[in-house]
Specification:
Cofactor: Zn(2+)
Mean pLDDT: 92
CATH class: Alpha Beta
CATH topology: TIM Barrel
Structural class: alpha/beta
Family: Belongs to the metallo-dependent hydrolases superfamily. Adenosine and AMP deaminases family.
Helix content: 40-55%
Distance between the termini: 36 Å
Order of helices and strands: EHEHEHEHHEHHHH
InterPro entries: A_deaminase_dom, Ado/ade_deaminase, Metal_Hydrolase
Largest sheet: 5 strands, parallel
CATH architecture: Alpha-Beta Barrel
Number of strands: 5
Protein name: Adenosine deaminase domain-containing protein
Pfam families: A_deaminase (PF00962)
Radius of gyration: 16 Å
Number of helices: 9
Low-confidence stretches: none
Shape: globular
């Protein structure tokens, strides 16, 4: 089980939820916070420092503060990104400019999601659109899929099972091909 904050960030900085998150952590809940979508990079820092989240939702504005981006990369922070939603809502200029590749390179652990499939397409549609527009390699897509399991809150045994299936399928599909999609 998990506790998270989401939706409108403006006027609701993470620090306002610190006591609730501290209580939830003592109860053994996983913690997630929507931060750095419409709110400033400071919200990302507060989600990490005050809420001690296990995973950050969006975090697109992290690159406005390079030291914060380095910190998240050094910590291997789990970050859920919703590329089509982030573009359609004006948070990221285009899929080609989405920071997901930079997050991967910098050591963060982004995973792709839809945010709302009825409005922004399925997770699969997000993968396809981002891979095409951002020229992601097969290895990068595979890492994003791996991250979706390793940053989930599934039991470790389930994560291992899913990763083994993914690796077997990926190995079979990569035979005789290059790394470009």
């Amino acid at each position: 089980m998990a506790l998270g904050i989401d939706s409108a960030e403006t006027g609701y900085p993470p620090r306002k939820f610190a006591r609730l998150f501290q209580k939830a952590r003592t109860m053994g809940l996983k913690l997630v916070a929507h931060a750095g979508f419409e709110g400033p990079p400071r919200d990302i820092e507060e989600a990490i420092d005050f809420l001690q989240v296990d995973r950050l939702d969006h975090g697109n504005r992290v690159y406005e503060r390079p030291e914060l981006a380095r910190r998240l990369g050094d910590a291997g922070t789990a970050v859920t990104v919703c590329p089509r939603a982030e573009v359609q809502l004006g948070v990221v200029a285009s899929l080609a400019e989405h920071p997901v590749r930079r997050m991967l390179v910098d050591g963060m652990r982004p995973s792709l999601h839809s945010d709302d499939p009825a409005w922004f397409g399925s997770a699969t549609e997000n993968y396809i659109a981002l891979a095409q527009e951002n020229a992601l390699t097969r290895s990068e897509v595979r890492q994003l899929v791996r991250n979706s399991f390793t940053t989930s809150f599934l039991p470790a045994s389930s994560v291992r099972l899913h990763l083994a299936e993914l690796d077997a399928k990926a190995e079979g599909s990569l035979r005789g091909t290059n790394d470009r999609l």
